[in-house]
Amino acid sequence: MCLVLFTACSWGASWPQTKFLLGELPPFTMRALCGGCGCVFAFAVAAARREDLRPPRAQWGRLFLFAMLNYGAYIVFSTEAQVYLPSSEAIVLTYTLPIWASLLAWPLLGERPSWRQYAALVLAIGGVALLVGVGSAEMRWEQMPGVAMALAGSMLFGLGTVLAKRTPMALPPATSVAWQVALGTAVLLVLAVFETADWSRVTPAGWACVAYVATVPMTVAYLAWFRALRLVPASVAATTVLVSPMVGVLGGTLVLGETLGPRQIVALGLTLAGVALAARG
After folding, report:
1. Which residues 6+ apart lie within 8 Å of 274 measured at CB?
2. Segment 131-155 mean pLDDT
């Protein structure tokens, strides 16, 4: 559980930094930059651990699938959803991933959800919904592409979580992460070609954010995530990841000066209660 919490906190801390970077670079250019740096760092970690960097030929198909589900497609859909939706609505839709992971874990892994896990999902999703004020949002037809993309990214990440639990990659951990980041970043590079970036706008603080996002959430946290999937049920791991938006809110308050009021505090309590219940199985 400590590994999942570390992953969730690392991913959550990247939200305010990513938001800061979006003010300096176009979205896919920013994602591709972080992915490229993360890829180099992950391969360096794998080399330092003396891991074999060459995936067996039989693993390439599964490696590409996991790269698209766990990184490439998820990043593309969740980023593009924000073009059509306010960020708060995109976030709450994206973080429905525990629902899809729990539903898929039953037929694919035989992990039948317990009443505690159902209750944990209700509490945690309720906390995230309260956090972003989803009840006050008015749905318009022009927002539907964003809704579809956010849900698609969430479903695909949930599927990737379950498949990684059922059939882990037969690769050393750092090498597996490095190749998944590399293949996922290749998709982002193609999309970034259609954007125009003004690199002179990137401040020293922006480069510091790139360094953090590329190393901790993109590499170290993914190592912890795949290791955790070997140790705890996929539905529990996915529910615990709901700590991420909570960490993002606190980070936004401290780093970006965003408001932390009663609604955010109650949402934090609900989500943490759900995570605590999920941790008990």
Report:
1. 119, 120, 121, 122, 123, 124, 125, 126, 127, 239, 242
2. 71
Tell me which residue of 234, 235, 236, 214 sits closest to 226, measured CA to CA: 234
Contact 264, 127 (CB under 8 A): no
Element (H, E) at 181: helix 173-192
Q: Give the residue from 235, 219, 229, 227 showing the smallest Cα distance to 98.
A: 235
Q: Tokens 């892994």 belong to which residue?
A: 109
Task: Dig out the tokens for 258 from the structure.
Answer: 């965003």
Distance CA 21, CA 32 (A): 12
Q: What's the sign of the alpha-carbon dihedral 6, 116, 233, 163?
A: negative
Size (the chain), residues: 281
Least confident of 14-28, 52-66, 82-96, 196-210: 82-96
User: Which tokens sit at 232?
Assistant: 């705890």
The answer to whether the beta carbons of residues 241 and 279 sit under 8 Å apart is no
Nearest in space to 16 (alpha carbons), one of 243, 250, 221, 204: 250
